[in-house]
Design a protein that fits this description.
Elements lengths: L1 H39 L3 H15 L5 H28 L5 H28 L2 E2 L4 E2 L22 H18 L1 H4 L5 H24 L26 H19 L15 H20 L7 H29 L4 H15 L8 H26 L7 H19 L7 H32 L6 H6 L1 H6 L9
Antiparallel strand pairs: 1-2
Helix pairs in contact: 3-4, 3-5, 3-9, 4-5, 4-7, 5-7, 5-8, 7-8, 7-14, 8-13, 8-14, 9-10, 9-11, 10-11, 10-12, 11-12, 11-13, 12-13, 13-14
Length: 470
């Protein structure tokens, strides 16, 4: 006990100098503070609090409403790819329906993995090569992509990255409609992976990552200072990009056996209608979600998306009624998709009245491309990806230059839009042609005659969609 008492007393006396120093430091701090008050005439404690408050206010904060909204929108965009699978699957012959479903679902798997590894970094990393592409190492394997919001954002960074990844899934999946029933599965896998890296990510960076289409902070290779191409949700990045790649693929592969005289009609139109309904439903997340917040612009994008789709379906049905005497469900759902495509680049910038006009024009342009131009030139774009996505996408991307409601529309903005469209067509058309040739020389693209005759369900996947019982 005596030893413990001695030890405690020693510790107490050892700590006293420290307390003295602390008291001296405190007194010095108070004196310094009083000096600051005397000099500046301000309370240092209130100044410090003000500085802290300003730093906190400047830091981005997560908005739970915006976050919940974007979680739903990301799921809706993913839902579009199974919708596309049903849409395309119902339009092909029964011996190829599983091959189309497999290709669409494989896009969900393959593109997701590539997006995490390098796609997101290439699309949304800091500019390299003069704004051609994003820094591939900045977000490699989602490095630095966490739950904190980016500057100027109210949603977690990882949610933004995942939302954009859903666009990367469906864009190459759209091209499937051009080569349906005649491309090897191995060739499809290699071409789609290369196309995502070489075509999708550069265009995504040009439009949304601060690249060539954005001259807000200074002139770029394609835009003068102050010129910014409007592409709210993917007119150039998604639809024109996929559309021109689809056309190049259809021309490269050539026609299917028996095209056009001996090609059977769609084997399951109810599947196609179901798929179109799923696409229409998911498109609300596609367009309204591109605002990245639950606000008035998102609400307007939602409204014009619905109106333009409805007008597109109505217009196509009227065109068939006038030209052929009967309106078809296939034509109606084609018009709906054409309207959805056309409004995509414009949905954040146009009025409901403009959406009505755009929907009607989209069906006219797409119908002309599918029913007249395709028949005249004889190319086999199996499910009319170029005719609907490409042509309606071009219409929407250019028309928004005139229809934008913030007072900046006119021939000047329309010329900016035309430049972005031409750049997309030239770049993606050229690169897609090169990729097709490279893949064909290495793993092969077009299936052989026997496989095409028996169907890709059996030749590539050893499965049948429908079991017939005796």
């Amino acid at each position: 006990m005596k030893f413990i008492h001695t030890l405690l007393m020693f510790g107490l006396f050892s700590f006293l100098p420290v307390l003295g120093q602390s008291q001296d430091a405190s007194e010095g701090a108070v004196a310094a503070a009083e000096e600051v008050v005397d000099v500046d005439g301000a309370d240092p404690s209130s100044t410090a609090v003000t500085e802290i408050d300003s730093v906190v206010a400047a830091a981005p904060e997560i908005d739970t409403g915006d976050t919940a909204f974007m979680l739903v929108c990301a799921a809706l965009v993913l839902f579009m790819t199974p919708g596309l699978a049903f849409f395309y699957g119902g339009l092909v012959r029964r011996k190829n329906v599983l091959s189309v479903l497999m290709q669409c679902f494989m896009c969900m798997c393959l593109m997701t993995v590539l997006w995490v590894i390098c796609g997101y970094s290439l699309a949304f990393g800091e500019n390299v090569w003069g704004g051609f592409i994003g820094n591939p190492s900045q977000h490699w394997m989602f490095k630095g992509v966490g739950i904190e919001p980016q500057s100027g954002s109210t949603i977690p960074h990882i949610l933004f990255a995942v939302f954009q990844g859903m666009f990367a899934i469906i864009t190459p999946a759209l091209i499937i409609g051009a080569f349906a029933e005649r491309m090897k599965f191995k060739g499809f896998m290699v071409f789609s992976a290369l196309w995502l890296i070489c075509c999708y990510t550069p265009l995504c960076h040009w439009a949304w990552g601060g690249g060539y289409f954005n001259g807000e902070d200074g002139a770029t290779l394609l835009m003068a200072k102050g010129q910014v191409a409007i592409d709210f949700a993917g007119g150039t990045v998604v639809h024109i990009n996929a559309g021109i790649a689809a056309l190049m693929t259809a021309l490269f592969l050539g026609r299917r056996q028996g095209y056009p005289d001996k090609i059977s009609p769609p084997h399951n139109l109810p599947f196609a209608v179901l798929g179109a309904g799923m696409l229409w439903f998911g498109w609300f997340g596609f367009n309204a979600g591109s605002e990245l917040a639950a606000d008035g612009i998102a609400a307007r994008a939602f409204a014009v998306t619905h109106v333009c789709a409805a007008m597109g379906g109505l217009a196509w049905a009227f065109i068939e009624w006038i030209r052929d005497g009967k309106a078809t469900i296939l034509g109606t759902i084609s018009g709906v998709v054409a309207g959805l495509v056309a409004i995509t680049p414009a949905c954040g910038s146009v009025s409901v009245q403009s959406a009505l006009l755009l929907g009607a024009l989209a069906s006219c342009v797409a119908y002309f491309s599918v029913a007249i131009v395709k028949e005249k030139f004889g190319y086999d774009d199996s499910l009319d990806v170029w005719g609907i996505h490409g042509m309606a996408g071009i219409l929407g991307a250019v028309a928004v230059g005139f229809l934008v409601i913030d007072g900046t529309g006119g021939f000047g903005q329309a010329w900016v839009q035309v430049k972005s469209v031409l750049a997309t067509i030239i770049y993606t058309g050229t690169v897609s042609a090169i990729l097709l040739k490279v893949v064909d020389l290495t793993v092969g693209l077009k299936t052989d005659e026997h496989s095409e005759r028996v169907g890709l369900d059996l030749s590539d996947h050893a499965e049948h969609a429908y079991t017939m019982l005796d």
